[in-house]
């Protein structure tokens, strides 16, 4: 009989070969935790290769989930529990494990051949090298095969179910229900009844193993986290972005057209939007990145919400057409799910290094709006805002997500009614707006709204509104081709003024003490680590303020005042200081950069340590 111990939070990491199903296992464990009402955050981490060499360090795939009875801001700095399916998974992740944490290891895979693949001369399970951790050796593979002895399946098919055995065991350890996974498997393998029953049997066997073995004498319970009342689901950033785009198009009463070319980690946007055809979504998988954005811009010209999705290398290829959209002054949404670079770089890892490319990576003065969501669920709201800005101001909008947000997940409260969503009001031009030299009604495509500087959006084919568009500079108002120097200067400044005039909210500062000398500011996906790091620092008595940027072009109107009101400003970024460069130049404030480009998000402890160092430099140390 096990003891039940109540705990506040736990971080679990599943790790194995890229063919061991660790992403599926982690996703199911996460979903089952979400059903129980825990707040959570996840960090999938997998190789770029479709099938990396089996049993090698480059082939290790992992999935980390942090769930708690309180607000969770990050996937956790380090695992409390590691499930290692082979020697490579153990070696690749051991350095992240605090002393005293738990390791559940699949002993069946610790053969001499597998040990040699990762450089182990001796089996670490047989010497004293793991004595600092609580190691539970479990022959996961052989127990799974034995549990499936009565199934008419080959050994390899039986072995593939070992991830379900591991999931069942961890579900028992942390009192997770199996109902959600049962339902998921029933749907996934509806046309493969033998595989379905084998996976269900392995899941039950893992749960029963936890109940009956003496090796696991303690179960753990994590109570639900207090949350705003409503209906929740677990959601990744890519799914949230797809839903946000669709909801915005629905609010605008316009079709959504996606032109996309598959690229990691943005491909899921194409996959998810392709499932939403019944909501007026059309998806086009184009032959390349340039064709994809061309289709999206053509859709915008035709009166739809044009969207294109990509990652950093694809954004570079799309730059000429983004410049065309700036010249045409049409709404266009460009989703850039940033990844490690340059070139192919680290396709499955995260980075924030596309900021300067998004801001300036086009020929000529070619301004666009730039938005950076701060969490997986915020991708939903950021996508709606992108559509609002694009349609209101007739401009391309770049949404800078990244691999951490795209693949990570957290609970998301579904809107109770459609009225909770922001309105997206679109008015097409339907009547002439000028007269020609003879006094007859005419349409001037670059006659601007006095408040937004947006030009009218006229659907091609509207009688009397025939007009010319293109990439060659246009005369203000009439839209005729113009090489006049003064006109070009005017048009360049007007397009910039349109972006500068976009109404974005002021930046808010979280400063509980009210007299902090240090401000930590960030943008995009660093929100969670910075907030968690500040929480850690404040727990020791540190006085630190924090703020976060969501709108990067234009920047909030009060940002300069905020930056100048603190003795020191620190800016953590997953690049080499791109936003810091921009803020120094614009506001003449000596921003202190903290940068890392490891392909992984910052940890809370890392940010807390940075805060401590800067407080010491300000003479604010000894706060513990």
UniProtKB/TrEMBL annotation:
Keyword Oxidoreductase listed? The answer is yes
Query: Which source organism does the UniProt entry give?
Result: Flexivirga alba
In terms of PANTHER family, this protein maps to: 2-OXOGLUTARATE OXIDOREDUCTASE SUBUNIT KORA, PYRUVATE-FLAVODOXIN OXIDOREDUCTASE-RELATED
Q: Where is the Pyruvate flavodoxin/ferredoxin oxidoreductase pyrimidine binding domain?
A: 256-476
- Show the SUPFAM superfamilies listed in the entry: Pyruvate-ferredoxin oxidoreductase, PFOR, domain III, Thiamin diphosphate-binding fold (THDP-binding), TK C-terminal domain-like
Q: Could you tell me which residue ranges the Pyruvate/ketoisovalerate oxidoreductase catalytic domain spans? A: 19-207
**What Gene3D superfamilies is this protein classified in?**
3.40.50.920, 3.40.50.970, Pyruvate-ferredoxin oxidoreductase, PFOR, domain III (3.40.920.10)
* UniProt keyword list: Oxidoreductase
| Superkingdom to which the source organism belongs | Bacteria
Stated name of the protein: 2-oxoacid:acceptor oxidoreductase subunit alpha
One matching Pfam family, short form? POR_N
